[in-house]
Write a structure and sequence with these properties.
The chain is α/β, with parallel strands linked by helices. It folds into three domains: 82 residues, Arc Repressor Mutant, subunit A; 93 residues, D-Maltodextrin-Binding Protein, domain 2 (3-Layer(aba) Sandwich); 110 residues, D-Maltodextrin-Binding Protein, domain 2 (3-Layer(aba) Sandwich), CATH 3.40.190. Helices cover 37% and strands 21% of the residues. The protein has twelve helices and twelve strands. The chain has a five-stranded mixed sheet with strand order 4-3-5-12-6. Strands 9-8-10-7-11 form a five-stranded mixed sheet. It has a two-stranded antiparallel ribbon with strand order 1-2. The protein is elongated and about 80 Å long.
Length: 313
């Protein structure tokens, strides 16, 4: 087959089709009509002598050949976009660019304030659009619709770039009048009532159960390893809400230490070291290969790394 006889637009069509697995959505993303997209799929099937997408009870399902092609096609598209990407310089002092950053409220309250302080000195007209994990999907990041993702992750797509920002230990926050402070040990910790807080990954969350250890995260994984289980009475996905709840006289909230430090000057709270070992968690920064060589994006990544490197151990 002569490459000169191949319509290379079909590779773009295929890339979007394999991501969306839906002809209508693929057509909408490419800005073409559904009949044009259907015709494109027909030509793709002829080009590769394979059905590519097959309708099943789960919707349009990629064939094995399509699964093999997907990373190769994405690589070709990435390389092509880098070839045509304009090599413009970036001047942070004059830029009014908006950077869209997805961050959990943990990252938003621990990292973003420091970032804003630096931006006010180095790039006063740059603006940030902070999004929540429920606002964003991995395909959004892959397409470059979101500049950066800052969060804790259990699993990451191999195609994304990532950088470790810092490691953080854990602390316990209780009301200063909570009598548990006078007898703080593992036994009293386990007998008390607890606030569970976590939000890893991206997308809309689902309900959790105190009986499902493998989905509860660092604190409960650490307890399970020593054969223990805490009494969780409240589940929340917001660290700010968890800190407020920690002000209740009968509750304990165990959360990353940088988040706990937000109440260190408040006399209504006491911060205690957990009475058992909890491995440190990692805060990571994630971005699309499409933005890897963008000058402004590279500058922002380097700035964030510069204000977080002292925290990596």
């Amino acid at each position: 087959m002569n490459i000169a006889n191949v319509d290379l637009n079909l590779l773009v069509y295929l890339d979007v089709l394999l991501r969306e697995k839906n002809v209508t959505r693929a057509a909408e993303e490419l800005g073409i009509s559904q009949p044009a997209m259907s015709n494109g799929l027909k030509r793709i099937r002829e080009l590769f002598s394979d059905p590519i997408l097959v309708r099943t009870s789960d919707g349009m399902t990629p064939t094995e050949r399509a699964k093999e092609l997907q990373p190769l096609i994405r690589s070709v598209i990435n390389a092509s976009e880098q070839v045509i990407l304009p090599k413009s310089s970036f001047d942070p002092k004059s830029s009014n660019r908006i950077f869209r950053i997805m961050a959990s409220d943990y990252g938003e309250t621990t990292l973003i304030p420091v970032l804003l302080t630096e931006l006010s000195k180095r790039a006063p007209s740059i603006r940030l659009d902070i999004m929540t994990p429920s606002d964003v999907s991995f395909p959004d990041v892959e397409r470059g619709k979101v500049d950066l993702v800052i969060n804790r992750f259990d699993n990451l797509p191999l195609s994304f770039h990532q950088s470790l920002l810092w490691n953080d230990g854990f602390s316990c926050v209780v009301n200063s009048k909570n009598p548990i402070r006078k007898l703080w040990n593992l036994d009293t910790y386990l007998k008390a009532k607890h606030v569970w807080v976590s939000k890893t990954g991206m997308g809309v969350g689902v309900g959790v159960s105190p009986d499902t250890f493998q989905k509860l995260g660092w604190v409960d994984d650490a307890l399970e390893k020593i054969g223990k289980k805490r009494n969780i009475s409240i589940f929340t996905r917001h660290y700010q809400a968890a800190l407020i709840l920690g002000g209740q006289e009968n509750l304990i909230v165990t959360l990353p230490s940088k988040a706990a430090m937000q109440v260190q000057d408040n006399k209504s709270f006491s911060i205690l070291e957990p009475p058992f070992h909890i491995p440190k968690m990692q805060l990571k920064m994630l971005w699309s290969p499409l933005l890897q060589n963008d000058p402004g994006h590279k500058w922002m990544r380097q700035l964030i790394k510069s204000i977080s490197d002292d925290n990596v151990e």
